[in-house]
Amino acid sequence: QVQVVESGGGLVQPGGSLRLSCAISGSIYSATALSWYRQTPGTEREFVAGMASGGRPNYADSVKGRFAISRDNAMKTTYLQMQDLKPEDTAVYYCKASIRGHDVWGQGTQVTVSS
């Protein structure tokens, strides 16, 4: 019932920026936490950034100072603003919504940082 859909991925040059969006729909309940993860082939999914309602944002050390997570007050959308992108940031980025004690994942959006 709950749908989590990421968008905004694509190809960007090193040093560039990209803004990912995540839309939560299909539920009358708002998420209590929204977060972003990323995963490359053969690796475990890695936490990137997250924010709980009323909480402070958290970032992985690898993206701290470059990425910023934001959300609307209804916790229906979340954004990941990525700056100064590096080739190491190349991955499939996933949005996770925590709703009523359950985590719902999106299908991911590909981000490729390359010249």
Structure characteristics:
115 residues, mainly beta, four-stranded antiparallel sheet
Description of the structure:
The protein is an all-beta fold. Helix content is about 0%, strand content about 55%. It contains no helices and 11 strands. It has strands spanning about 5, 10, 20-25, 35-40, 45-50, 60, 65-70, 75-80, 90-100, 100-105, 110-115. Strands 2, 4, 5, 6, 9, 10 and 11 form a 7-stranded mixed β-sheet that branches. The chain has a 4-stranded antiparallel β-sheet with strand order 1-3-8-7, with no helix packed on it. A hairpin with a 5-residue loop joins strand 7 and strand 8. The protein is globular, with a radius of gyration of 13 Å. The mean pLDDT is about 95.
The major sheet is characterized as:
7 strands, mixed
Q: What percentage of residues falls in helices of 4 or more residues? A: under 10%
State Rg: 13 Å
Give the CA-CA distance, first to last residue.
Answer: 40 Å
What is the number of strand segments?
Answer: 11
Separate helix tally: 0
Element-by-element helix/strand order: EEEEEEEEEEE
- Low-pLDDT windows of residues: none
Mean pLDDT: 96
Structural class: mainly beta
Please state roughly what percent of the residues sit in beta strands, choosing from under 5%, 5-15%, 15-25%, 25-35%, 35-45% or over 45%: over 45%
